[in-house]
Amino acid sequence: MDRIDLIEEYPSKIAAMLLNDEIDIGLVPVAVIPKLKESHIITDYCIGAENEVASVALFSDVPIEQIETVLLDYQSRTSVNLAKVLLKEYWKKDVKLQDAKEDFRSEIKGNVAGIVIGDRALEQSKMSPYMYDLATAWIEFTKLPFVFAAWVANKPLGEDFEDAFNRANADGVKHIDEVVMEQGPQHFDLKKYYTYNISYELTDNKRKGLSLFLDKLSKL
Hints:
220 residues, alpha+beta, D-Maltodextrin-Binding Protein, domain 2, 4-stranded antiparallel sheet, globular
């Protein structure tokens, strides 16, 4: 901690800061990687999924066959682009895509669905009759896990720093129980979320999934 200044923001804001060289490294949606002049994934850890992710989903009042418009969450480029890939190639749905504003969940009704991420998605799963988990759909479509976010630097940071940062990530993953206890009672089983829904190790299979996603993203 004495070697970094920690900034906490939602994913797409962190990505914008990395693009603008306002920060040197960020846990960013992987969709930003092709936009960087220089990019380095500097740890063996990520925010990935090998099962349903629970916190990134398409929510609707009606079955997917009846959806006409999809509102796109402003907080994550990767989730939005994953939804676009899946709508086009997996669900084969031609829908109207609309960028959403902050309080857009009240607009999810009738034939209007929404991509919702994060804690709000965990809340929305209790409210919407239909939930289509994007990680589940990707895994069924490609037979590969999905990487939502990775620690990406926009310049070389040096082997010493990268090694220390990687070990810090490893240490954090070992203390999930303490993290859950610090959060207190929640509307969702955080222990399950942190240990089942989220998968942290950036394995070879996850790298293959990431490469495939970036390839499909380039063709959108």
